[in-house]
Specification:
The protein is mainly α. The protein has helices spanning about 1-20, 20-35, 40-45, 50-70, 80-95, 95-100, 100-125, 135-145, 165-180, 185-200, 205-210, 215-220, 230-235, 240-245, 260-265, 270-275, 275-290, 295-330, 340-360, 375-395, 400-415, 425-445, 445-450, 455-470, 490-495, 495-505, 525-530, 540-545, 550-565, 570-580, 590-595, 600-605; strands at about 365-370, 420, 510-515, 580-585, 610-615, 620-625. Helix 8 packs across helix 9 (about 165-180) and helix 14 crosses helix 24 (about 455-470).
Length: about 625
């Protein structure tokens, strides 16, 4: 095992070396230690290392995230370093207890490295961080890498609060900025670390079934797929393999969709629901474990922490996990409701109320109504095998509480197949994704109960691994492969703007930038903010609405930005830019397409107001001079 550990540890070094950037490789062990150190605090309280590892980084991030959402305070990486040094000091003082967990820690970190390096390697063969909602995800992670003063604001609607599930971005930015990582490296590493934590989180589930192969099964969890791959084979062709990859999740009526771990981690959108996978898996695994044994104090504490974190990570998972946690707990009888448990329940309730109050907005047209079914075809492909596996496992274990959990998941499928919460797309996507993951864990238990099931599970994995080939095949940009340079595609996608983006890498902090905002999924819009994390007055319009802003506010900002570019009244424009705090103005191909007239000439004509600081092909960057 130690030789394999060396191989997995060497993979990041090898990939960075192939990129000709060994300096970045040296940051890997620093980042790794900084990401695991928070677990030392939790492991002291009789919490398994795997759970401590999963909860640690988010739990350290939560109080800081809440503090900086509401207070005007300076922020820098020294804060995280102080926490890490305290964790290291705590580990040293309690080293006797930690040494007793040595094997558990070593196995856990071996598992982490194995999954982390495997996904790092796979994704290096399709490195371009392009398509989907990656521009938004990159901008949020980049914003927190640059964040220097509270309160937290929406980088795509500067001057307003960020009403979004942003705890994941904030938490993962902490070890990255403390190890002086670039945005590019931070995103790529986080995208590989999340599946690694998910594998650790699943150990609680497999330990409940006392499997001898719990670590091996846990390593398979981030590669779980569904029968949706059948839909892939029906839609894929050799010329357009991405159609097949896409079709694996688009199995429901009206092109509604739900994801599964392998698909999510290959697609590499660092979305809140993805960063929530480890926490919801840990919570569900502990709830299943509570079906077999009376929940210990550490189990109740760990589930409580999961339920405290989820509203800030992905509130949909909280809505799904909290009821079943309460049901299984109360199934043990009301005697279990001691003062400690009641205090946890009060904390969870208060935290949820705070989170939902903060996230709620009049801009979202929430509806609560019944809708037509997502279709038997899609339901069968997404849930069929997993549901059969769960029922079989429950039947073999003859555990009534396990039947309650599976019944709850089945009821959730039937209910959310018709009930619209917020909107139909998100109802299907968020709830079906999570329920599908919960049930899919039972598929991996099948071989431990019946040897012949190993063939079925192996076939499922082999079939789903074809998705790897589908996503690796397309070459949208002639970038180097393998590579960890996820933003190298910019010189092909945005050749003029790439120079401006590179220039901002040397500019610290969060200067406000003016650029063309555009519609959602317009990859030529909001591109400077997307790939730097810098705040702008308006990003993708529909996405900003989903983050709590009204269409009236959106249109007003669009009109103001347009007037700043097109107006010929230079003094007025300069004064307004200063009053809004705009420090840089981008004038690239996108702005020249969408904004017309002589107003664009003022940036070159009046150097006393606008200083040209960077020019790259057709793009120019101007600094707004305050004097």
């Amino acid at each position: 095992m130690k030789y394999l550990a060396v191989v997995f540890f060497a993979i990041p070094f090898l990939l960075h070396s192939l990129d000709g950037d060994f300096t970045r490789a040296l940051l890997f062990p620093v980042w790794w230690i900084l990401s695991l150190a928070p677990a030392f605090f939790l492991s002291h309280f009789k919490i398994p290392w795997s759970i401590s590892r999963v909860l640690g980084i988010y739990l350290i991030g939560l109080p800081l995230f809440l503090l900086y959402n509401f207070l005007e305070l300076p922020f820098n990486s020294v804060i995280y370093w102080m926490i890490i040094l305290a964790a290291m000091g705590f580990a040293w003082r309690t080293r006797a207890k930690l040494l007793l967990k040595k094997d558990e820690v070593l196995k856990g970190e071996f598992l982490f490295l194995a999954v982390f390096s495997t996904y790092l390697l796979i994704n290096s063969f399709h490195p371009a961080l392009y398509w989907g909602e990656k521009p938004m995800d990159i901008s949020l992670l980049g914003y927190f890498l640059r964040f220097d003063f509270g309160p937290i604001q929406d980088p795509w609607a500067s001057g307003t609060s960020l009403q979004y599930y942003a705890l994941g971005y904030f938490s993962w930015a902490l070890p990255a900025r403390a190890s002086f990582m670039s945005l590019e490296q931070s995103y790529v590493y986080t995208m590989a670390a999340v599946p690694a934590l998910m594998s650790l989180a699943s150990l609680a589930f497999f330990k409940a079934f006392r499997s001898k192969f719990q670590y091996f099964l846990a390593a398979l969890v981030p590669f779980l797929g569904t029968l949706g791959v059948i839909n892939s084979f029906m839609n894929a062709n050799i010329h357009e393999p991405m159609k097949g990859f896409w079709a694996a999740t688009r199995v429901f009526t009206h092109n509604h969709f739900a994801e599964f771990p392998l698909w999510s981690f290959l697609f590499s959108d660092l979305h809140p629901h993805v960063m929530s996978y480890p926490i919801m898996t840990a919570g569900f695994g502990l709830i299943v474990a509570s079906a077999f044994i009376a929940p210990t104090r550490s189990m109740i504490f760990s589930v409580s922490i999961c339920l405290v974190l989820l509203p800030w990570l992905n509130a949909w998972d909280f809505l799904l996990l909290a009821p079943i946690a309460a049901i299984i707990l109360l199934s043990r009888g009301f005697k279990i409701l001691n003062k400690e448990v009641i205090a946890y329940a009060a904390l969870i309730s208060f935290n949820a109320l705070l989170a939902f109050s903060f996230l709620s907005s009049n801009s979202r047209n929430s509806i609560f109504e019944w809708s037509e079914s997502s279709g038997l075809y899609g339901l069968s492909l997404h849930f069929g095998l997993a549901l059969v596996a769960a029922i079989f496992v429950a039947f073999k274990n003859k555990n009534k509480k396990l039947w309650i959990i599976i019944g709850y998941c089945l009821a959730g499928i039937l209910f959310f197949d018709h009930f619209v919460f917020m909107d139909r797309v998100n109802t299907v996507f968020k709830f079906f994704t999570s329920i599908g993951i919960f049930l899919s864990l039972f598929v991996l238990v099948l071989p431990t109960l019946h040897r012949s099931a190993s063939v079925l599970v192996a076939l499922l994995f082999v079939a789903n691994l074809s998705l790897v080939a589908m996503i690796l095949k397309p070459e949208a940009f002639p970038v180097k492969r393998p590579s960890l340079k996820g933003l190298s595609f910019l010189k092909y996608s945005l050749p003029s703007d790439a120079g401006i983006i590179e220039y901002f890498d040397s500019i610290p902090g969060l200067p406000l930038v003016l650029e063309y905002p555009g519609n959602s999924f317009d990859y030529q819009a909001s591109r400077i903010s997307s790939y730097t994390g810098l705040p702008i007055l308006l990003g993708w319009d529909h996405h900003v609405v989903l983050r709590g802003k009204t269409w009236k506010e959106i249109m007003a900002r669009k009109q103001w930005i347009k007037s700043m570019y097109e107006s010929t009244d230079t003094v007025m424009v300069h004064n307004q830019l200063i009053s809004r705090g705009v420090e840089f103005v981008v004038l690239g191909p996108t702005e020249k397409i969408h904004y017309k007239g002589a107003g664009l000439d003022k940036f070159d004509t009046y150097p006393q107001h606008f200083k040209l600081v960077k020019s790259h092909f057709s793009s120019s960057l101007y600094q707004v001079l305050s004097q």
